[in-house]
């Protein structure tokens, strides 16, 4: 069943579809800590959360898109527990460390396989990643900074509504995450003007510096006087990054890791140290001259992007990241048509670890399927 069908059928039919999937069967076989989840296995809890969503007072006022996002967030929010659960041999307590982090990747992969559109997939995956944050706001050193930080990653209103359903979707008598904590999240977000929208920073540079600063100032208004603009391309092999550049930034000089590898006759499987070193030097040449340029590489993981973004920021460049991702079948077809095609199993491994860029990383972020944008 594909995404277009799934998002139009009733909740019970969505649950029936899920029960036919291997990731769901793993959830049904995965027990949880009784103190937090006396209802039992992960799938039982997941179904309870789904049914609590439609009982929310706010549910009738939500758009169909918002309802779909919340239902599929519920489906996947604990889907990685079978991959992460462990039992303490001394106490018998069950924990699932980093299940939300792994759950984000799992949700993105499953949704990609059923042809869910890029923007919806991003929204669901991010809600899965941060679904537990509202319950622990009181433990944060600066609660206001917490809700502001997440407002550019998720919709705080949807996150709050999901947290309500997640809290109510269990049989535990002694609730360790009281709803009062969730109300505090809502109140803090409303007071910070980021409950149903991203926090309104003074300008793009203010937002950029906020996420780079270990002790950020929400009210700082920096002067925007950039030396140049760097356009960083991001996307899996075969996604169409070169095509996007030729259509939208054809006037820019390009620093391309693929082109440098060809020049140096270095295979992608060889040591990339000299390739990266030369690419950094070519970037520095443009940066020192104040020349806008494009940097073209896969850049599909945040840590990899960050090393390049730090370089660009050191030269006071305005940074835009363009993430290109067509439907996966089209991507595989386009890759096969390239002269330097990448083995399909390698692309699938890269896709499983892919982290699309967010507004926390750059002054501008463009997400596109590469076809008509």
From TrEMBL:
Tell me the GO molecular function terms: kinase activity; nucleotide binding
User: Which top-rank group of organisms is this from?
Assistant: Bacteria
Query: Start and end of every HD domain?
Result: 42-136
Protein name (database record): Polynucleotide kinase
Question: Is Transferase among the key words of this record?
Answer: yes
One Pfam family it belongs to: HD
Keywords of this entry:
Kinase, Nucleotide-binding, Transferase
Q: What is the lineage of its organism?
A: Bacteria, Pseudomonadati, Planctomycetota, Planctomycetia, Planctomycetales
Q: Which organism is it from?
A: Fuerstiella marisgermanici
Q: Does the keyword Nucleotide-binding apply?
A: yes
Q: Which InterPro entries match?
A: HD/PDEase_dom (IPR003607), HD_domain (IPR006674), HDIG_dom (IPR006675), P-loop_NTPase (IPR027417), tRNA_CCA-adding_enzyme (IPR050124)
């Amino acid at each position: 069943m594909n995404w277009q069908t799934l998002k139009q059928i009733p909740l019970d039919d969505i649950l029936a579809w899920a029960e036919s999937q291997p990731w769901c069967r793993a959830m049904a076989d995965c027990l949880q800590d009784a103190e937090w989840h006396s209802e039992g296995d992960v799938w039982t809890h997941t179904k309870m959360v789904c049914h609590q969503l439609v009982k929310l007072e706010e549910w009738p006022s939500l758009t169909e898109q918002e309802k779909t996002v919340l239902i599929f967030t519920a489906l996947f929010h604990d889907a990685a527990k079978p991959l992460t659960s462990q039992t303490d041999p001394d106490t018998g307590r069950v924990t699932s460390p980093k299940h939300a982090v792994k759950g984000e990747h799992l949700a993105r992969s499953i949704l990609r396989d059923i042809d869910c559109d890029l923007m919806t997939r991003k929204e669901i995956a991010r809600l899965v990643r941060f679904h537990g944050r509202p319950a622990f706001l009181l433990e944060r050193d600066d609660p206001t900074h917490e809700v502001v930080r997440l407002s550019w990653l998720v919709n705080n209103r949807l996150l709050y509504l999901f947290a309500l359903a997640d809290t109510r979707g269990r049989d535990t008598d002694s609730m360790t995450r009281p709803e009062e904590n969730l109300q505090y999240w809502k109140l803090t977000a409303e007071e910070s003007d980021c409950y149903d929208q991203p926090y309104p920073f003074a300008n793009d540079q203010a937002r950029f510096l906020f996420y780079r600063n270990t002790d950020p100032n929400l009210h700082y208004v920096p002067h925007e006087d950039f030396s140049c603009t760097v356009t960083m391309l991001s996307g899996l092999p075969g996604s169409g990054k070169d095509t996007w550049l030729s259509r939208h930034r054809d006037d820019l000089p390009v620093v391309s890791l693929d082109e440098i590898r060809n020049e140096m006759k270095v295979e992608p499987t060889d040591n990339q140290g000299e390739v990266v070193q030369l690419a950094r030097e070519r970037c520095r040449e443009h940066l020192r001259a104040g020349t806008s340029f494009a940097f073209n590489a896969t850049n599909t993981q945040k840590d990899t992007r960050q090393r390049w973004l730090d370089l660009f920021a050191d030269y006071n460049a305005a940074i835009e990241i363009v993430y290109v991702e067509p439907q996966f079948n089209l991507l595989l077809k386009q890759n096969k048509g390239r002269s330097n095609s990448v083995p399909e199993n390698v692309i699938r491994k890269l896709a499983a670890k892919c982290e699309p860029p967010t507004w926390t990383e750059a002054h501008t972020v463009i997400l596109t399927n590469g076809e008509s944008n």
